[in-house]
Amino acid sequence: MSNAFSLIGTAWDFKKSQPVFRAVLFWLLFLPMLCLFVLSDYIANEPYFSSATWEDVATGTVNPHLLIGTLFLQILIVVLLLWGIASVTLVGKRLVQSRAGRARTSFKTVRRQAAHLVTNLFLTSILRGCITLLWSLLLVVPGIVYSVRTFFYFVAILCEGKGYREALNQSSKVVRGQTWVALKQICGLCAVIFFPLIVIDSLIVQLVYLLAPALLRITYLSSSYLISLGLLLFLLSSMTLYAELQSSSS
To answer: Which one of 69, 151, 242, 245 has the minimum C-beta count within 10 Å?
Structure first.
């Protein structure tokens, strides 16, 4: 079993070999992430949101338009990010299946094919979250085990054509018997990919804060890019891990 650095190295080499990732990274990961930062900043600084609640909306004491509008925008941003995740996974299909068809080089083709799978991805993620929560309410450890075993549901959906419970079951089938290994590898990928990016982002924010506090919001650009790049590498690395776990389980 490869270590986290080997998995990331494979993901990085694959990323460099697929120019379409540049468009996917910008349009479907970076821009939605930037919009999420801007919207969160607006909500945090708008007095309306410090007092308005859904109970106030129900009783008619506050105007619901702004609350409903921001909720709609948050959902839209999440859908766009899922579209980006679906696009990355479709392009990375060759990491899981050696015969995955011709290489996808057109951003138009990738985003069109990924768009048809966003609903499946969205609903399956909700289903997985509900089942994980149910297990966690009963017993914490089974909830963690279920979460780890079904972690690769997005690969089962986008690379193997599974849907909903079938995708969750396929992920569990591959991970079962290797749960501890999968957990260690996933945690290792998170640490190796995101910790350095968090440190870099914190340094940038701190530097801008010290030199030009008025321009602090500009750091949303760097934060969005670093998170998006980390997410892309994490997805590709996870797909490589899935392929190794699948090979070990067969």
So the answer is: 69
Listed residue (137, 21, 173, 165) closest to 88, CA to CA: 21
| Chain-centre distance for alpha carbon 180 | 22
Instruction: Report the distance separating Cα 89 and Cα 82, nearest Å.
Output: 10
Query: CA 182, 6, 156 angle in degrees (round to 5)?
Result: 45
Q: Contact at 8 Å (CB) between 229 and 218?
A: no
Three-state DSSP at 212 gives coil
**Residue-wise DSSP of 115-129:** HTTHHHHHHHHHHHH
Looking up tokens 């008619």, which residue turns up?
Answer: 60
SS3 content of the chain, % helix, strand, coil (to 5): 85, 0, 15
Nearest Cα to Cα of residue 185 among 244, 133, 113, 227: 244
* Amino acid in position 229: L
State pLDDT tens for residues 19-28: 999 999 999 9
Residue 163: both structure tokens together = 């849907």
In contact, 115 and 83? CB cutoff 8 Å: yes
